[in-house]
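Our consortium's second objective concerns turning raw sequence data into structural hypotheses that experimental partners can test. To show how far this objective has progressed, the report includes one record in full. It was chosen at random from the queue rather than selected for favorable results. The single chain below, 191 residues long, was entered without modification.
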Amino acid sequence: MFEEEVILNAIKYRRSIFPASYTDQEIADETIMEILKSANYAPNHKLTQPWRFTVFKENGLVSLANEMARLYKEQTNPAQFVQKKYESIREKITQSAVVITIQIKYSGLIPQWEEVAAIGCSVQNLWLAAYAKGIGGYWSTPGTIRYLRSFLSLEEEEECLGLFYLGYHQEKTIEGFRKPIDERVKWVKKS
């Protein structure tokens, strides 16, 4: 049986934890697979299961960091190029224990927005599973991800929807700030 308070607190206290806060502790492959198995249980219409993941770890992180930095330089107008941002792109990736690219494979069976929504649910499951294991993470969607097709060997019906950074950390657990829900809820009751 599940414990209601545990689930509700995981949802309430899960936060974005950024690579600058990560420690040097490695994440075991088995732990990564457990987290991805949780992502795999996301709801999805007609069981299209559109999520795909590529896990970058160890030297793979260096390859991804180099590619993302190269894409930033290549896709940025020279007058807009900032060397510090170029270096920051590489640093964020290499400070992480793991970076997972989040990919979608459109089935053509249902509207694309439904499959994108399923990806969001899958990433939330991934995030909650990481939180439960004391691992911080965050989902980043830089504009350059659209140029990763060749690097990730994506098929025609696939697309990269972001990078998910992971790492152990020592940040304090804090409740996320949200405006009161009653400002966003309308009730309709029979009279």
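The partners drew two points from this record. The chain has five helices and four strands. The chain has one domain: 17-183. Both points have been shared with the crystallography group to help prioritize constructs.
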